[in-house]
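pls read this stuff:
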Amino acid sequence: MTAMLRQKNYDKAVSAGVTVLTGLASFLDPHRISVAYADGTSEEVYGEQFFLNTGSRPFVPPIEGLENNHFVYTSETLMEREELPRRLAIIGGGYIGLEFASYFANFGSEVTVIQDGEAFIPREDAEVAQSVLDSLTARGVRVLRSTTIRSVREESDHTVLSLESGDSAYALEADAILVATGRRPNVAELNLAAAGVALTERGAVKTDEHLRTTASHIWAMGDIVGGLQFTYISLDDFRIVKSNLLGDGSRTTENRGAVPYTVFLDPPLSRVGLSETEAAQKGYTVKSARLPAAAIPKAHVLRQPTGMLKVLIDADTDLILGAHFFCAESQEMINLIKLCMDAKLPYTVLRDGIFNHPTMSEALNDLFGAVK
């Protein structure tokens, strides 16, 4: 009956031009995969070309007491919890951890973020990162830096983390723990070695600028390639592969320009391009400008005057090198900066542009007007 049902679905899918098989796939050789189904059956599938886009999974560090702890969650399971934790401990001060810290603080939880390094979001511009830290602290989020988690112990109705910072050791009680220590490419079950597909030192699928793997008939896209893990990167990866297969191959990972992204805090933190430190390291002569979010009329309309905006300009060309917006609606504003950077428009276009009122984007007049 199962085989008949699968054949029936197969016939329907073929008539639409697509066959969807829901199962666990692994390579048998460069052109054959085995697909294992939930009912215990399996089948072999042959393909002339393969396109890998299996995403990523949360990484759980080998800390004593984390495994099989009923109070431990990942970003994929915490939102399934039905009761709001009064005390939430977050392991990891990266983007995922901070997003959860922000909205669980809004929910009313007492949030503690634990990170092993001293620098707070070190990939971001230091000035903007400090503004983010100040905002989170003002909202009651506690960030423990340079702190090591030695073990985790499960009690009857809560869990206890054993922490160490410098010469001090102490315990932290929590009703829930979120493990937010990054994600890893989802490649373990694919048996890529059988297909001749190599991995990088960090466990991602190795590809060239066209996203072709070390097997010439296999391409990889999205999180499994490593780098930025965003839905729209996977979408743009599709454009690159399409250009390679059906176009002139001109679109590559090397020419898609700076990638904008947003960390959905409250308010959101958005960025595109270089930080001030990175621009200096690359030898640019930099002009810059800053604007407090409180100077934007629409921020007060939204009752979100927290944050700041910062831009970096190449003093020799007047082109935008980078933008860092920690303010309401920054996730929309940053797209305009990306467009100007790709079009190689001087910052004066935004400085002198006419923007609708009242909007957050009209602040670009004042921000770029302050460049010096």
